[in-house]
Design brief:
heterodimer; A: 8-stranded mixed β-sheet; 4-stranded antiparallel β-sheet; about 35% helix; B: alpha+beta; about 40% helix; binds pyridoxal-5'-phosphate
């Protein structure tokens, strides 16, 4: 599917060349259908440079990091720590030491939620304190805070969602108050696509002394992210959605805050010294990286963010906006289809969830799949947000830098076919 | 990929006109099962009479939300088990389970499974097997609770895995 059916302003230059970077995109599926991959918010595809960087590491440089003193150990450590440098640069982090590797975004959020319970001093979350999230969060940014508040006697509160799919900030003065210790919210919603005004919310949270965590799992892939400009204390994302591998996530935290947090997991590499009675701990970032880290994954993630940086995140964002606008127009032509969330491309990331009257999302995605079109059906790990709109599940198409207008056309055709198949509408 | 093998006419008919739908009294057990990956849900009640070898499935009523496969499966199941002895109904359940877990390699027995043979195609779509099994698993669970002597309070949500 390399033919561009239309040219849209904002589309990436050389889209064909970019698509050639992703070997999987030339696959055909059952019955000879070319792959139309519209599930990038779930996980992105991987360019050859990422695959090659990981293979090269495994073929030539494999060893454990830090603790291996030989030449390969030095090379492996350089590859792994090089990944950290690249991520730090990509996020405009003031220091590489503020970049902590985790297993995924979920673990990064759990790290913060747990250590805030264990902290002593001003950061500690305890009885009577409040943790503020939103109704549009991924389960990964709800459940860790439910666990924290249940265990500590703190109270979990949340911003609602307006009918237009935006955060309902009408009660912000009440929700952000002197008891608020943590505000944790998604930068870009994985279900509604909404881009939230995070800097403004962070500013309000800081006025009352709360710490702010941004779930940037859908933001880092989609738009330029500058952690310093974000105003947050913590920003988390996951490697596999930014053209990197699975098995690695990132927690960026402001040094002053990270240094006040106790360790999360105990083990090798996170200590300064260990005796049988007690241990002292390494400084950041290693204090939060117990055990052998995801080495080859860090190498792959480094290659991935370098790849995105070379294309330019402003260009990626413009591309996503162009594709999203085109998709919103296309979906609007399908009768009986309702898009959930904001209707303007400027207000959203590249994920569009929708319903079709009379056809369950599972069945929609099944018929699309028979035509080689991969979308996601279900609650997308955002059950509360679905409930807010009175639906149990939805179908979601999500684009990325390799998505073409032709693929959106294929989706719209596929949806018309689906309706015919089920004789709906 | 043969869509028509999955979406047999029988399945679509049951989906559009489900049999025995809605929650009814009396019942001895009510369960709520969800498919955690997609959010499909069913609340299901079972009414048995008799005990031991004489137990009979008097009624199965349900409120289901989900895709065509999971909805049709609930409808077909009620047709198959209502009015049967519990022993026979459990045998049908076993037979359906074998069909679903057979990855398309099991030849269904129409005498036992009746309309449920239409689900043979579903077994070839691993992602959809759980949809077909949701209400069957709920029925099995509710029945087991009755046999174990538990009372008819709405129970905790169970996951069908
Ligand atoms: C907004 C958001 N937050 C968190 C996550 C969790 O990412 P992971 O499953 O890699 O931890 C996802 C992706 O599934 C997401 O979309």
């Amino acid at each position: 599917m390399t033919v561009e059916t239309v040219h849209l302003p904002g589309l990436l230059d050389g889209l064909d060349v970019i698509r050639d970077d992703f070997p999987i995109l030339s696959r055909t599926l059952a019955d000879g259908h070319p792959l139309v991959y519209l599930d990038s918010a779930n996980t992105s595809q991987k360019p050859q440079v990422v695959i090659d960087a990981m293979v090269d590491h495994l073929e030539r440089h494999n060893a454990n990091v830090a603790r291996a003193m030989h030449q390969l150990g030095a090379e492996s450590t350089a590859g792994f720590e090089g990944g950290r440098d690249k991520v730090a640069a990509f996020l405009n982090a003031p220091s590489r030491e503020e970049v902590i590797f985790t297993k995924n975004a979920s673990e990064a959020i759990n790290l913060v939620a747990n250590t805030l319970a264990w902290a002593r001093g001003p950061l500690q979350v305890g009885e009577g304190d409040e943790v503020l999230v939103t109704e549009m969060e991924h389960h990964s940014n709800i459940v860790p805070w439910q666990l924290l508040t249940e265990r500590t006697g703190a109270r979990l509160r949340w911003f609602g969602i307006t009918d237009d799919g935006l955060l309902d900030l009408s009660d912000i003065d009440e929700l952000i108050n002197e008891r608020t210790k943590v505000v944790s919210l998604t930068w870009v919603s994985n279900m509604l696509g909404t881009v939230n005004p995070v800097a403004e919310i962070a500013r309000r949270a800081h006025e009352v002394g709360a710490v702010v965590l941004l779930d940037a799992a859908q933001a880092v892939p989609q738009m330029p992210v500058d952690v310093q400009a974000s105003g947050a204390d913590f920003v988390v994302f996951t490697g596999h959605k930014v053209t990197g591998p699975t098995g690695i996530g990132v927690l960026w935290g402001r040094r002053e805050v990270l240094e006040q947090l106790p360790p999360f997991l105990g083990g090798g590499e996170m200590i300064a010294t260990v005796s049988m009675e007690r241990s002292t701990y390494a400084g950041i970032p290693h204090r939060f990286e117990a055990g052998t880290p995801p080495i080859v994954e860090a190498v792959g993630l480094g290659a991935a963010v370098d790849y995105l940086a070379a294309i330019g995140m402003h260009n990626v964002r413009a591309h996503e906006e162009a594709i999203t606008r085109y998709a919103l127009e296309g979906l609007a032509t399908v009768s009986g289809l309702t898009v959930l969330g904001p209707q303007q491309a400027e207000q959203r990331g590249g994920a569009i969830s929708f319903e079709i009257e009379g056809i369950h999302p599972h069945d929609v995605s099944q018929v699309l799949d028979s035509r080689g079109i991969a979308v996601r059906a279900g609650h997308h790990c955002a059950k509360p947000a679905h409930k807010r709109f009175g639906v149990q599940s939805s179908t979601r198409m999500s684009s990325y830098l390799y998505t073409t207008p032709g693929e959106i056309d294929a989706l719209v055709d596929g949806l018309e076919y689906t309706k015919k198949y089920f004789r709906a509408g | 990929m043969d869509l028509d093998a999955l979406y047999q006419e029988i399945i679509l008919d049951h989906y559009k006109n489900p049999h025995h739908a809605g929650l009814r009294d009396p019942f001895e057990a009510e369960v709520h099962h969800v498919n955690p990956t997609c959010g499909d849900e069913v609340t299901l009640r079972v009414h048995l009479s008799g005990a031991g070898a004489d137990a009979v499935v008097e009624d199965v009523s349900y409120d289901a939300e989900g895709c065509s496969i999971s909805q049709a499966a609930a409808s077909v199941m009620t047709d198959l088990v209502i009015g049967r002895s519990l022993t026979d109904a459990l045998a049908v359940h076993e037979s359906f389970l074998t069909l679903m877990q057979g990855r398309g390699g099991v030849e269904p027995d129409e005498d036992v499974l009746e309309d449920a043979i239409a689900f043979a195609g579903v077994a070839k779509f691993p992602a959809r097997v759980k949809c077909a099994l949701l209400s069957w698993m709920a029925w099995k669970d509710a029945t087991a609770r009755i046999v174990a002597g538990e009372t008819a309070v709405p129970t905790e949500t169970e996951e069908t895995r």
